[in-house]
Write a structure and sequence with these properties.
The chain is mainly beta. It has a single domain, classed as Beta Barrel (Porin). Helices cover 10% and strands 58% of the residues. Strands 1-2-3-4-5-6-7-8-9-10-11-12 form a twelve-stranded antiparallel beta barrel. Strand 7 and strand 8 form a beta hairpin. It is globular. The termini are far apart.
Length: 272
């Protein structure tokens, strides 16, 4: 069973890599200009050895495909829709999710942007019964809204909040990022440094009344080596993420049961 999942995961990696390599080739040839300047298309695929969401360790050996289409509806106002996902290949990947989204962003100035979005999370492997064969009230879906502001000056600063209605989960997160330009060594090369801190309060974890509510802080920091070629950006990186909750709490006893961990990642993203 596990070997079959691993084989399927590797096929997904190879397929995604083949598609993305084709897109990178198009970018290198300069053949990706869209006819409409007010339309944007972004998509990519990523891989991580560990996956954290709101400071919770949820998945291991994760495949992360994503896509987004944006359209300018007014001056400085964009509407977008897309899909985010995180699909673990480990046998205990209960928190696999596919999340359609829709949002609006507003460029207040060249350096300040407001963004709000709605996501509907589908948890594709959330069990209907527990280990004892008893029905569980765990939700196989949830609805989340978020609002954030980004300041993009000499470095990128962001502050945002979100609320998940089914989990009754409120999150506040601040993040900072800085790019070291290494194009003097190789054109398109750089290093992205990032750090984040957050606060999470969950009153009904996974929609299950029997799980205790939690309130914890979380953190993360890392660096990615990035290489840009026209519309494509390739990154490999390492980070460290964790939370302040007790290791025996429900949120640290899930898939993998880790309170904190080093995170290795690789991704290819394209923007038209």
């Amino acid at each position: 069973m596990f070997k079959s999942n691993e084989g399927s995961f590797m096929k997904k990696i190879l397929l995604a890599a083949s598609v993305m390599c084709g897109v990178v080739g198009l970018c290198a040839n300069g053949s990706t200009n869209l006819p409409e300047q007010n339309l944007t298309i972004d998509f990519g695929v990523g891989l991580k050895n560990e996956y954290f969401s709101h400071g919770r360790h949820e998945l291991r050996k994760v495949y992360i495909p994503r896509a987004k289409v944006g359209y300018q509806i007014f001056d400085e106002v964009w509407m977008y829709t897309g899909i985010d996902s995180a699909l673990g290949m480990a046998k205990d990947s209960l928190f696999n999710h596919v999340s359609p989204l829709v949002g609006i962003s507003y460029n207040v100035t060249d350096e300040v942007k407001l963004d709000t979005r709605y996501l509907h999370h589908f948890y594709t492997k959330m069990p209907k019964k527990d280990r004892n064969g008893q029905p569980t009230d765990a939700k196989r879906y949830s609805n989340e809204i978020s609002l954030g502001v980004v300041f993009d000056t000499f470095m990128k600063l962001s502050l945002g909040g979100s609320y998940d209605f089914e989990h009754k989960e409120a999150t506040l997160e601040g993040a900072a990022g800085y790019n070291f330009d290494l194009s003097f060594l190789i054109s398109g090369l750089g290093v992205d440094m990032w750090a984040k801190v957050g606060n999470d309060c969950t009153k009904k974890p996974w929609g299950m009344a029997r799980l205790p509510k939690t309130h914890y802080y979380y953190y993360g920091a890392g660096a990615d080596l990035a290489y840009k070629i026209n519309c494509a950006r390739v990154k490999v990186g390492v980070g460290y993420e964790g939370n302040s909750a007790n290791k025996k709490d429900w949120m640290n006893a899930g898939s993998g049961g880790k309170k904190n961990s080093f995170v290795l990642s690789a991704s290819i993203d394209c923007s038209f």
